[in-house]
Specification:
Blueprint lengths: L1 H16 L23 E4 L2 E3 L8 E3 L5 E4 L7 H10 L7 E5 L5 H4 L2 H8 L3 E5 L3 H5 L13 E3 L4 E4 L2 E7 L8 E9 L2 E8 L18 H12 L6 E4 L7 H9 L10 H24 L5
Parallel strand pairs: 4-5, 5-6, 6-7, 11-12
Antiparallel strand pairs: 1-2, 2-3, 3-4, 8-9, 9-10, 10-11
Helix pairs in contact: 6-8
């Protein structure tokens, strides 16, 4: 056991050493890290982080195969493959591919990754299917859909049960995932938030998305009902994985990813921003 713990510590330290351009804390938006490799590591239970510096991907492992959430850009697929393999796993063991929302930075590489896995099943929230299929990729691959999901549906594999929650606003089919994992003899509720409210979002008079303000309001109301122990998200600045990973590598207890307060603060901030944006834009409607 001592040898195992020592090896794990050395691997975590080595991981930190390969982050020359990545800040040790991520609390503000920084798109320069989207294509920067980030050390793959166990988050908690059977959940591992396999994304880039600021585009987060998660792997739920099981004896029957694995579930991947978010494929990100095609050009970052080599980082994804390396992240998975450094965990001692194989891309071909990924059996299901999910996404947070139909934007290229999270789902552009889905067709490519499906091929690499040998045919993993791709599942997409119903309201995001049109936008997802319209995603253009450098390779020209057509984005596949094997199963269309509805709000509240579950995805099951090898004892892992992920529930898809429709949380629209960032996109019409923005999908927040929840599950429960076991770690150290305890159960922990896990939430992967889909997407937040952009500071420059047009909520009033949005011709491309007329219902956007109402959709964000509905999602904020739904987010307030969740009480996760583990708060994860599609973007790093929502929950500071670099800072948490740094503390994890130093043996911090309890697990730094256990952060219910961080989740509540994120939701409260989104609600505050929604109120401010709606008030400002109603007073001074944005130009068309």
């Amino acid at each position: 056991m001592v040898a195992s713990n020592t090896l794990r510590a050395l691997m975590l330290i080595a991981g930190l050493a390969v982050m020359p351009s990545l800040a040790l804390a991520q609390t503000v938006e920084d798109r320069t890290q989207d294509r920067v490799a980030f050390p793959s590591h166990k988050v908690i239970g059977n959940v591992s982080s396999v994304g880039t510096g600021t585009l987060n991907s998660f792997l739920f492992t099981s004896p029957e195969g694995h579930i991947l959430v978010n494929t990100n850009f095609e050009e970052t697929v080599p980082h994804l493959r390396e992240a998975v393999e450094k965990l001692g796993l194989k891309m071909t063991d990924i059996k299901i591919i999910l996404g947070s929302h139909a934007h290229g930075d999270h789902m552009q590489a889905t067709a490519m990754v499906k091929e690499m896995t040998g045919g993993a099943q791709v599942m997409v929230m119903e309201q995001d299917v049109p936008a997802y299929k319209a995603l253009k990729s450098p390779s020209g691959k057509v984005q596949p859909v094997d199963r269309v999901l509805k709000d509240g549906e579950q995805v099951r594999l090898g004892g892992t049960v992920l529930t898809a929650h429709l949380t629209p606003g960032h996109t019409r089919g923005c999908t927040t995932w929840t599950t429960t994992v076991q770690d150290g003899g305890r159960s922990y509720s896990v939430l992967i938030a889909c997407g937040g409210l952009q500071e420059d979002a047009r909520l009033v008079g949005n011709k491309n998305y007329p219902e956007i303000a109402d959709h964000f309001a509905q999602s904020i109301k739904k987010y307030k009902t969740f009480k996760p122990d583990i708060f994860l998200a599609s973007h790093a600045w929502f929950y500071d994985p670099a800072g948490k990973y740094q503390r994890l590598s130093k043996g911090a207890t309890p697990n730094p990813y256990i952060d219910p307060a961080g989740y509540q603060a994120w939701v409260a901030n989104m609600e505050k921003n929604w109120n401010s944006l709606v008030a400002e834009q109603k007073k001074s409607p944005p130009a068309n």
